[in-house]
Amino acid sequence: MEVHHVTADAETFTCNAYLALGATPTLVDAGAMPGVVDVIEERTDSLDRLVLTHQHGDHVAELDAVVEAFDPDVYAYAEHPRRTHALDDGDAVTIGDETFEAVFTPGHADDHLAFVSETTLFSGDVVVHDDGAFDYGSFGRTDRPGQSRERLVQSIRDLLDRMPEGVEHMYSGHGGVFHGDVRDVVETALERAERREPKYPDG
Question: Which Gene3D superfamilies does the entry link to (predicted)?
Answer without folding.
Answer: Ribonuclease Z/Hydroxyacylglutathione hydrolase-like
